[in-house]
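User: Hi! I'm working on a homework problem where we have to compare a predicted structure to a textbook description. Could you give me the structure for the chain below?
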Amino acid sequence: MANNQHETLSGVLIDADTGLSLAQLCRACSVHAEYVVELVEEGIIQPHGEEITRWYFPGLCIQRTRKARRLQSDLGINLAGVAVILQLLDDVDELSRRLNELEP
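Assistant: Happy to help. Predicted structure tokens:
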């Protein structure tokens, strides 16, 4: 007899402009607040708000934080290198977008 157990997954949709607190970003990316602070100091992600207790992050910071963590863990790249790589990837995306706009 087949066992018909179903696993239910749930989640939250976050658009690019949705603001996340520091704690929410840490939970979403499975990182410590100290790591996020290092990413901010390196310019990899930019929070809105002056004080760390009032920081909130656009939804796109989830993707950048996860990419940064993967680059460090998988390739052993330091944060300065991660910042350069992510900037280059952003540049490639922007050039690709511009090229697509030029095509008929």
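For your comparison, note the following. The mean pLDDT is 88. The two ends are 58 Å apart (CA to CA). Good luck with the assignment!
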